[in-house]
Amino acid sequence: MSxxxxxxxxxxxxxxxxxxxxxxxxxxxxxxxxxxxxAVSAALRRLTTAVGSPLFARQGRGLTLTSRGAQLRAQxxxxxxxxxxxxxxxxxxxxxxxxxxxRIGFSDAAEVWLLPALLRTLExxxxxxxxxxxxxxxxxxSQALATGGLDAAITVADDVPAGVRRTTLFTGGFVCxxxxxxxxxxxxxxxxxxxxxxxxxxxxxxxxxxxVEDVMRRSRRIRCSVSSFANLGAVIDGSxxxxxxxxxxxxxxxxxxxxLRTAAxxxxxxxxxxxxxxxxxxxxxxxxxFLRAHLARLAATTARRAERA
Length: 309
Known about the structure:
Layout: H1 3-6, H2 12-23, H3 26-33, H4 37-51, E1 56-59, E2 62-65, H5 67-88, E3 101-106, H6 108-125, E4 130-135, H7 141-146, E5 152-155, E6 164-170, E7 174-178, H8 191-196, E8 198-202, H9 211-216, E9 221-226, H10 232-236, E10 242-246, H11 247-256, E11 261-263, E12 274-279, H12 286-308
Parallel strand pairs: 3-4, 3-5, 8-9, 8-10
Antiparallel strand pairs: 1-2, 5-12, 6-12, 7-10, 7-11
C-alpha cells in the first residue's frame, strides 16, 4: 500500500477547507455544507493539526488564507474537482469501441451451441472485444467464480458461494441421438429396446455412470464413456450406439451431421437448469451487463429453436 494511503488524513476535511476558503467565513461555509458552525470549526482544527501549520488568519469579521493555506487551496482546486467527478460521474461504455477481454466459463455442452453464436454477435456489435473460453462444470464453477478467475459462467451449478449471482437460462430435456444407417430402430422407441441397446455416455467422473443411471437408478449397456458432449456426434456417426444428450447438443450435432437422427426417450428425463453465473462485484459493470444480456438472449433463442427441432 502507498505510504500516502496510510497517513491519518480525512479527505473530507479538504472539502470543508475549500468551501471555507471560498466563503471567507465559517458561518457561510457551514450553511453551504449543511453543517453546524462548531462542526466546521472542528474540521478546520483537525486539518490544521494534520498539516502542521495555520491555514487561516482573522481579518475583520472574516478569515483570510495564510501563505500555507493559499498553497493548499491551489492544490485542492487542481485536484479535488477531478476526484469528485471520478466518484460521481457514471462510467461510459460503448461496445463498438470497447476492447474488454472476457473470461467465460462454459460447460462442454454450452460451449458447443453458445460460443459460436456469441462470437458472431460480438463481431457485429463489439468487434474489439475478445473472449477466453474456459471449461467449467458444476463441481468447479463455484471455485472459479469465487477466486475471480471468471467474468461469467454458463453451466449447471449446485450451491454457489456468497458473492456469486445466478439466473436460470432454461431447463432443457434430453433426447436419444443415433445414426439410423446402423442403429435401425422401430419408433417410438420402447423402454425395453432402449436398455437392450449399447450406449455411449458422458461421465465427468471418468466411470460408466451417466445421467440415466443417476436419475433412473437403472444401468444401461455402456460401450464407451467420454468426458465431453462436444464430440458425441463423431462417436455416434457410423456406429449403432445410442447417446442420451441434451436437445441442444443433438441439434448442434445434426447441423454438422444431418444424417443423424433423434428419438424421444421412452421415459421422462429433464435436465438440471442451465444457469448464467457471475461475480456480484460485476453487477454494475457496463461491459459485463452487455455480455450477460447477450448471453441470456442467445441462450433463450437457441433453446426455443431446439424445442422446435
